[in-house]
Structures are given as structure tokens and as C-alpha cells.
Design brief:
The structure holds two protein chains of two kinds. By secondary structure, chain A is of the alpha/beta class. Chain A is built from nine helices and nine strands. Chain A has one domain: P-loop containing nucleotide triphosphate hydrolases (Rossmann fold), CATH 3.40.50.300. Helices cover 32% and strands 24% of the residues of chain A. In chain A, the strands form two sheets. A six-stranded mixed sheet of chain A has the order 5-6-7-3-8-9, sandwiched between helices. A three-stranded antiparallel sheet of chain A has the order 2-1-4. In chain A, β1 and β2 form a beta hairpin. Chain B has one domain. In chain B, α3 packs antiparallel against α7 and α6 runs antiparallel to α9. Chain B starts with 14 loop residues before the first helix and ends in a 5-residue tail after the last helix. The chains are: A alpha/beta, B mainly alpha. At the A-B interface, α2, α3, α4 and α6 of A face α1 and α4 of B.
């Protein structure tokens, strides 16, 4: 049963394997209700797999994931989760506002489409099919799609990748507004400034395991910035 | 400017609204896709015209058999090739993954696809029916034959859709595109969907008769002559059950 005391996401000893590859290796973490939680890690660290477990796309080999105390499947069915995918996630020929009107129809109390589109500047390219949008424009549409159902938890997988600085700051403001309104946010990003600006709690993971976590103040108590903490706790996949 | 209230108010819309929204959206997108329209309407209309004037050279001696053959082709193209290709790219572009985590869910997604298929096939058959009547098609009207045709069409859609989802849910989108079109053409020529089973060499007729395309074609062609044919319903039921079972087993929602 869902409980108001349950965290937005609770992950316990999660393990996911794809053939011989272990994508998530006994990982445990929580995302607090009404807070912004940042999940950081190199490419292939297990961030997207963890999100896929929390949104009922991937079934874990071991461990448990709960969303507001519910199974991910039940949480998604109740409209508790809004997901902004890392890439595409829409039909090639659909126009931005058509997609939003469709997504709105799946929910009981959706945000009004036109004001949301105006807020995110979608009218500029309202007649353009999704496949012809730039990466940043697609991200803006996907962000609108994630919040339109007024979910309790918004999962944002690299929300500002490909966006210009104006768009990034607009998205940051929107994410802060979500938190102020009581929405929980799980955010993955490679932008340390983004995580430092937004996150109430940061989890740094690598090779499917949690390396370090805490509030920004806790992590940087020794005077290092977040990027230094990140570099010290994760491994480069490239030769230096 | 309207203030947006971002406070959480989650909840699913009623199931019927979700499914209808999905079916309507998919049908609208298909109508916008030129390649899909080619499969759905242009090729069948071309076959109607071709069959009407030179059908006797290909075993369609009775002009009244051309229209039901083309209706079978239309159902074959929509429920198999178009569905396989569209679903393959939806999987590739993360549409299935995204929608399965909304209140629509996987069951709603499948139901929505069925609604879309129904809308598209009904629209397609209506257009083809009008063209066929304009070209002089005059079927023998028989209620039992019409009812058996409807049952056969539903079973055929289930069979074709099941196998379309096997392709789309397992293979890469590009491979699904190539194979979907190739299988469409192979069955168009060799599957007795357009030509009657009797037009094929006698030695291969038992094999051809066991194909779902042939079963659908034969039911509709006989129905146009006012005759009821029941054996194809068994063939179609078998292919439908097998296709749906295999697709349920092998379908992957993400690429």
C-alpha cells in the first residue's frame, strides 16, 4: 500500500544483468518525497537501467524497487510517475501539441496544454513533426510530456542535454517550481552545475553501485567542488 | 498568461478514454504517412483496376472475385505489414517504452492498437468498397456468407497482427521494415490472398490452402458468390492462436 511516509523511490539491493553484463550490482538508494534527487555517474554506470526498473520497463534479477511504497507497475498505472526519456520517445510524424493533447487524455487531471506549451516555447515549432525537431526542442517536448499528467514523481533523464543556456535555465526554473509545488524529482545529468544548483541530495554511482551520496553541503564539506567529488569516485571509460 | 499548477494531482483517465485517445492518434499518424497509405490504399486500388480489366489472365475469370481478393490484400497489408513496420519503429524510438509507463500501460497500448487497426481497416475497406462498386462489382448478397466473412476478417486480423508483433517485437526496426515488405510481397504473389487457390499448381494447393492469407481470400471470394466456406475458419483460428501466443512470448517493449 502507498503511504505518505514512503519515499518517492526506494531501491533495495537491486541487481540487473543483461547477459554477461551486470548493469546494476546490488544497488540501494532512496529519493525523498518532495525533493530533487540527482543521480550522477559515467555513461554505462547504471542510471538509465535504474530508471527503467522504477518505471516498470526492466524487471530486476534481484532486489526491490518501490515507488511511493507501490510496485513500479502500480505506480505507473495510477499516473504517479511522469517520465522524460533520454532520447526520442515519440512518433516520428507527431506534432508537439498533438503529442501533449494525447498524453493529457491519459490522465485524470492534466495541466492545460496551451499554457504549458507556451511556458516551454513549444508554439515556435508547433507544426513541425517530432522527427524534424532539434535535440533541444525534442527535450522540451519530452519535459512537457513528463509533467502534463501532474504526477507525484517526475523522472528526468538528462533533461537539458542539447539545450542552449536560455533553455537550460528555463528548465531549471521549472524543476525548482515542481519541487516548490510538492512534486518529487529524480534527475540524471552529466552537468555538475545542474546537479549542484538543483539537487537536495546527490547519489554518485558507477559500475552499478553507489560510490558516495549526500547533500551538496555534505559532499563538498572538505572544500572540493561536486565535479572533483565525481571524478574521485568514478572511473573514466576513456584513456586519459 | 495562465498560471500552471504543478502540485501533484495524479490519476488515470477512464480506460475507454485512454484507449480511444491512443487508437485515434495512431490512426491519424498512419493517415499522415505516405508509405503506409501506399500499402493501405494505392496498391489495393491499383489491384482493383488491374483485376477488373485483366484479371482473367491471372485466374480471376469472374470479375466479381476481384473485389473480395483486394479486400483480403487490404486486410493483409494493414494488419501485417503496416502494423509490423509501425510497431518496429515505435519500439526503436522508445514510444512503447514511454507509453508503457503512463496510465495507458501495456494492456491499454495493445487495446489502443486494436482500435487503431479497426479504424484504419474499416476506412480502407469502405474506400475500396466504393471503388469496387463504381468499377461494376455486384456481389451476391447472403447474410450467412456475410457473417462468416466478418468472423474470418476478425480472425485474420488477429493472426496477421500476432505475427506482425513477433517481427516488430524481436527484430531491429530496419530488419522489420525489410522483412515486413518482403513477406507482404511473397504472400501477395504466393499466398493466395489475391489469386484463388485454384490458380496455383495442383501439387502446392494443399500447402497454399493452409496459409492464413489463402484462408481469408477463399472465404471472401466465396462469400461474394453467396457461398459459405467454413474450413478456412479453422486455419485462421490456428494461425491466430499461434501468432498471439508466440508474440506474447517473444515481444520486447524496449530496443
Amino acid at each position: 500500500m502507498s503511504s505518505s511516509a514512503s519515499p518517492a523511490i526506494s531501491v533495495t539491493d537491486l541487481t540487473v544483468r543483461f547477459g554477461a553484463t551486470t548493469a546494476v550490482d546490488g544497488l540501494s538508494m532512496t529519493a525523498d518525497t518532495g525533493r530533487i534527487t540527482a543521480l550522477l555517474g559515467p555513461n554505462g554506470a547504471g542510471k538509465t537501467t535504474l530508471i527503467r526498473c522504477a518505471t516498470d520497463i526492466v524487471t530486476p534479477d534481484a532486489g526491490r524497487v518501490e515507488v511511493f511504497g507501490l510496485s513500479p507497475k502500480d505506480a505507473c498505472a495510477r499516473g504517479l510517475v511522469g517520465v522524460m526519456p533520454q532520447s526520442t520517445g515519440a512518433w516520428s510524424y507527431v506534432r508537439p501539441l498533438e503529442l501533449l493533447r494525447y498524453l493529457a487524455e491519459l490522465h485524470a487531471n492534466p495541466l492545460p496544454v496551451e499554457p504549458l506549451a507556451a511556458r516551454l516555447g513549444l508554439h515556435e515549432f508547433a507544426r513541425t513533426p517530432y522527427r524534424r525537431l532539434s535535440g533541444g526542442q525534442q527535450q522540451a517536448v519530452n519535459l512537457a510530456g513528463a509533467v502534463i499528467g501532474r504526477p507525484s514523481l517526475v523522472v528526468l533523464d538528462e533533461p537539458t542535454a542539447g539545450m542552449d543556456p536560455h533553455a537550460r535555465h528555463a528548465v531549471w526554473n521549472l524543476i525548482a517550481e515542481l519541487r516548490a509545488a510538492g512534486t518529487s524529482v529524480l534527475l540524471t545529468t552529466h552537468a555538475m552545475d545542474e546537479a549542484a544548483y538543483l539537487a537536495d541530495r546527490v547519489w554518485i554511482i558507477d559500475r552499478g553501485r553507489v560510490r558516495v551520496h549526500g547533500t551538496l553541503a555534505e559532499l563538498t564539506a572538505d572544500g572540493d567542488d561536486l565535479e572533483s567529488i565525481y571524478l574521485a569516485n568514478t572511473e573514466s571509460r576513456m584513456m586519459p | 498568461m495562465t498560471t500552471l499548477d504543478f502540485s501533484p494531482a495524479p490519476g488515470p483517465a477512464p480506460a475507454a478514454r485512454r484507449i480511444w485517445a491512443h487508437g485515434r492518434t495512431e490512426a491519424m499518424l498512419l493517415a499522415r504517412n505516405g508509405e503506409q497509405l501506399l500499402l493501405a490504399l494505392v496498391i489495393p486500388i491499383g489491384l482493383l483496376v488491374l483485376g477488373r480489366f485483366v484479371g482473367d489472365r491471372f485466374g480471376l475469370s469472374d470479375p466479381n472475385l476481384v473485389a473480395p481478393s483486394v479486400f483480403s490484400v487490404a486486410i493483409w497489408s494493414s494488419a501485417f505489414s503496416s502494423l509490423a513496420i509501425a510497431t518496429g519503429f515505435e519500439r526503436r524510438y522508445g514510444v512503447l517504452e514511454r507509453l508503457s509507463s503512463t496510465p495507458l500501460g501495456r494492456t491499454g497500448l495493445i487495446a489502443g492498437k486494436a482500435v487503431s487497426l479497426l479504424l484504419v481497416t474499416a476506412g480502407q475497406l469502405l474506400v475500396l468498397l466504393i471503388v469496387a462498386l463504381v468499377l461494376g462489382w455486384r456481389p451476391v448478397l447472403s447474410l450467412p456468407a456475410l457473417l462468416v466473412s466478418l468472423v474470418a476478417a476478425v480472425l485474420a486480423v488477429m493472426a496477421f497482427a500476432g505475427w506482425a508483433l513477433v517481427l516488430a517485437g524481436r527484430l531491429r526496426a530496419e530488419v522489420t521494415l525489410a522483412l515486413g515488405n518482403l513477406i507482404y510481397l511473397i504472400f501477395l504473389i504466393g499466398g493466395a490472398v489475391f489469386l484463388p487457390v485454384a490458380a496455383y499448381p495442383q501439387v502446392v494447393q494443399p500447402v497454399v490452402s493452409a496459409l492464413p492469407t489463402a484462408a481469408l481470400g477463399e472465404v471472401l471470394r466465396h462469400a461474394a458468390l453467396g457461398e459459405v466456406l467454413l474450413w478456412p475458419l479453422g486455419v485462421l483460428s490456428g494461425w491466430a492462436a499461434l501468432g498471439l501466443l508466440v508474440s506474447r512470448k517473444v515481444f520486447r517493449w524496449s530496443s
